[in-house]
Design brief:
Radius of gyration: 20 Å
Strand content: 15-25%
Number of helices: 14
Number of strands: 14
Structural class: alpha/beta
Length: about 375
């Protein structure tokens, strides 16, 4: 399924947004089943991302709103949602929001078990995850919020791996390379005859799913002799400390530490391209550009606090995304996202085949017809 997504990331979002018709979501009262709890990660020695928040306009405090909202999932989407949560606290101080990180897959396990209200996701929900939600009576609204470019990071002392081809990255990470491809020289003959050290998101991470599908060619196809963590902060710290380390993380994490780590430009056949706001948005940073999402329980939108928070998130998404160092969608896209919420359009557009070759602008125009 995800091979289609890599070839048409921007297109897929447009199709998602254009699907603004659908049955109203049911409002079941599911009995949550236990969901796996991610093991706590080691506490990194670097500070967390602290994006600069844009000041809120003058607005009346909503003391009429109260309740609790529980959010979990992707560490990649975490900085955007964290900003939304912090700014919403100034508007609705009586609403409590819990925000956790257990990876996209771990987040969906909790979400589809009825434990959380919103799930941060760095990939679309998988059909089997959708089936689990459906079996538990959980209907959801799928909301794209930003673009990201998975960034391959290296230690600052690494002066050789400044650019790698997709084939070289595949050779480094493919399952068949485990135990046999272990040194930089085995990747390129003029590189040091020193062992590289691999760090990567764990198997519950949407970043892991996306990277393996885009680079290796099959989702979750990866060698296992790497050090994994669902926490991108931990991966960043490992590479900072290890001269032979290499990892892949969300773009915002790389941006926060550009003075502490290097980044590998990726050559997908058109020359070396580094991740940047421009190359991710225009699709030239390929195949590692991708959309980011939040998934919202449809029945929870009947709660005033929840609906107000989601609308607050969407209305300020463009600035929130920029403040969190990601790439916003076109403004028209956020308008269409709000329509999806208004109409309670449920399910995932990525459960269906997605045609390739149509730009987001063309599809947005088609959506309006």
């Amino acid at each position: 399924m995800f091979s289609r997504l890599y070839r048409g990331t921007v297109l897929s979002i447009a199709l998602l947004l254009s699907a603004c018709t659908g049955a109203a979501a049911p409002s079941p009262t599911p009995t949550p089943s236990p969901a796996p709890t991610a093991a706590p990660s080691a506490t990194p020695q670097i500070v967390s991302i602290q994006p600069t928040a844009t000041p809120l306009p003058e607005s009346m405090t909503r003391l009429d709103l109260s309740g609790e909202i529980i959010i979990d999932g992707s560490s990649t989407v975490y900085p955007i949602t964290e900003l939304a949560m912090q700014q919403f606290a100034a508007v609705a101080p009586r609403v409590t929001i819990q925000l956790g990180v257990s990876g996209t897959g771990g987040g969906f396990k909790k979400f589809c078990a009825g434990i959380t209200d919103i799930s941060n996701a760095s990939r679309p929900i998988k059909p089997d995850e959708s089936d689990t939600c459906r079996a538990n009576g959980i209907a959801f609204v799928e909301i794209p919020v930003a673009f990201d470019g998975i960034s391959v990071i290296i230690n600052r002392d690494n002066t050789w791996a400044q650019c790698m081809t997709v084939d070289e990255l595949k050779r480094m990470w493919a399952p068949e390379s485990e135990g046999s491809v272990t040194t930089w020289r085995q990747i390129r003959l003029d590189w040091p005859d020193q062992p590289f050290k691999l760090y990567a998101p764990g198997v519950d991470s949407g970043t892991h799913d996306y990277f393996t599908a885009a680079i290796v060619g099959k989702e979750d196809a990866s060698r296992n002799d790497y050090i994994g963590s669902e926490d991108d902060y931990v991966l960043m710290q490992r590479v900072i400390e290890d001269a032979q380390g290499i990892a892949y993380v969300g773009y915002a994490y790389y941006q926060e530490y550009t003075d502490k780590v290097g980044v590998v430009a990726v050559d997908a056949g058109q020359g070396c391209v580094s991740p940047s706001l421009t190359t991710i948005k225009d699709g030239t940073y390929t195949p590692l550009s991708r959309p980011l999402f939040i998934y919202v329980r449809a029945d929870r939108l009947d709660r005033p606090a929840m609906l107000t928070f989601v609308e607050f998130y969407i209305n300020r998404a463009e600035q929130l995304v920029q403040d969190a160092r990601y790439i916003p969608l076109p403004q028209r896209a956020y308008e269409l996202v709000q329509q999806r919420v208004d109409r309670r359009v449920t399910g995932s557009i990525f459960d269906k085949p997605v045609p390739v070759g149509v730009s987001i602008d063309e599809l947005l125009m088609l959506e309006g017809q």
